[in-house]
Amino acid sequence: MSSNKATSRSLFLQSSPNRSAVSAMCRETEVIDDIRTQHTKASKLEDPHLDATVVQSTCQALHATGSCPICMYFMSEPYILECGHTACATCLRRVFERLVLKRLGTLRFESQSHDYHDQGECQVVPKTDEELVDLIGCVEAHGMNPADIFIYECPICRNESRRPPVVNVGLTDVLMDLLRSYKGQYIPEYSRELKLGDSAFQGLFLTQGVCEASGLKFRDM
Ligand SMILES: [Zn+2]
Ligand SMILES: [Zn+2]
Ligand SMILES: [Zn+2]
Q1: Are the CB atoms for 168 and 178 separated by under 8 Å?
Q2: What is the model's pLDDT at position 194?
Q3: Cα dihedral across residues 43, 49, 53, 59: positive or negative
């Protein structure tokens, strides 16, 4: 990754050790505070009234465009679902994990099927595709079709999807532009090759790779 890309990315996602830190960073209040601090440092505007107006309108634009419909905070990683709704990667993952756990819960009391695996093994949300492949084996041992477990509703419109959400590149660009134009920093073109969090939904979807590894028939989504 070039340092330019790193700079561009760092506006949204400064390198952080864990997802909860990322989530905390996406609060719009912090973004706004950051903008204000940066602006105070770098401001070339001399009219304090104009200065305040610029801050206010930029903050309003950021808030209107970049708020997550689930947590209402500023989105650091906007992901779009098949239905067209966009939300934070962290929020979506949390919603999907809860759904999967609820469905897996129906397997909990089928004691005989646990003969093929440890009782707790079929009650854990997979964090990687490898863990998902193992879980698929458990689900099949219970006589259930994995395709009925790993399917997700949009938390906004309830539309069902078997395809993982993808980075909302358009919105990311708009938000980057807003931040960039306001901060008055020169930041080179934002790269579309740069994917924020490739593994955001790992372990939750029956992708082609997961189906191949687990011997499931891949239904082209
Ligand atoms: Zn959110
Ligand atoms: Zn089981
Ligand atoms: Zn939707």
Answers
A1: no
A2: 40
A3: positive
CA of 69 to the centre of ligand 3 (A): 11
Give me the mean pLDDT over the 83-91 stretch: 91
Tell me how crowded residue 175 is: count the other CB atoms within 10 A of its CB.
23
Ligand 3 center–CA 119 separation, angstroms: 35
Listed in sequence order, the DSSP H helices in the chain are: 3-10, 19-25, 28-42, 48-66, 89-104, 129-141, 146-149, 169-183, 208-214
In the reported structure, the alpha carbon of residue 198 is separated from the centroid of ligand 2 by a whole-number distance in angstroms of 29
pLDDT at site 103:
94
DSSP code string of 16-47 = -SSHHHHHHHT-HHHHHHHHHHHHHHH-----
What are the sequence ranges of the domains in the chain? 3-76+166-183, 90-161+204-214
Token pair 């994917």 is at which residue? 195
Q: What is the pLDDT of residues 147-195, one digit of tens each?
A: 999 999 999 999 999 999 998 988 888 777 776 666 554 443 333 334 4
Only one residue has tokens 């601090």, namely 37
